């Protein structure tokens, strides 16, 4: 009877792990296998339980730090930082007071604002990209 229980525990843990996107039950598979082998060999129930707990605990200790590192989200690179310091061309007048303006840099069109609070830069002018704030480039007239 215990053979069926340990086989069921192992299968359920593996199926749950396959269905859930996070690591939640994979650690019970080695413990279940150890207990199953002990049950097949005719070992006492108390030894099966100890092997299940020990196998699962060791699996957690070995794999949990690696799993946490792999699941930690990191920054997503966009290559937008390539625009920093680049020369752009104003395609729509940049006017901070009106909250409008567009520039083209590296083949992409961006919303733009001037580094000066009340700055206005006419269309056709060349500017330098100083920084990025959200989806807007902050630009300064090219000297």
- Give the count of structural domains: 2
Tell me about the largest β-sheet: 5 strands, mixed, barrel
Radius of gyration (Å): 30 Å
- The spatial strand order of the largest sheet comes to 1-2-3-6-5
- Kindly report how far apart the N and C termini lie: 84 Å
SS strand fraction: 25-35%
Derived from helix and strand composition plus strand pairing, the structural class reads alpha+beta
Uncertain spans = none
**Could you state the order of secondary-structure elements as H and E?**
HHHEEEEEE
Mean pLDDT: 88
Number of strands: 6
Query: Which range best describes the helical content: under 10%, 10-25%, 25-40%, 40-55%, 55-70% or over 70%?
Result: 40-55%
Q: Tell me, what's the shape?
A: rod-shaped
Number of helices: 3
SSE diagram, text form:
Blueprint (H helix, E strand, L loop, with lengths): L1 H18 L8 H13 L4 H27 L15 E9 L4 E6 L2 E7 L5 E2 L4 E8 L2 E6 L2
Parallel strand pairs: 3-6
Antiparallel strand pairs: 1-2, 1-4, 1-5, 2-3, 5-6
Descriptors for this entry?
5-stranded mixed barrel, OB fold (Dihydrolipoamide Acetyltransferase, E2P), 143 residues, alpha+beta, 41% helix
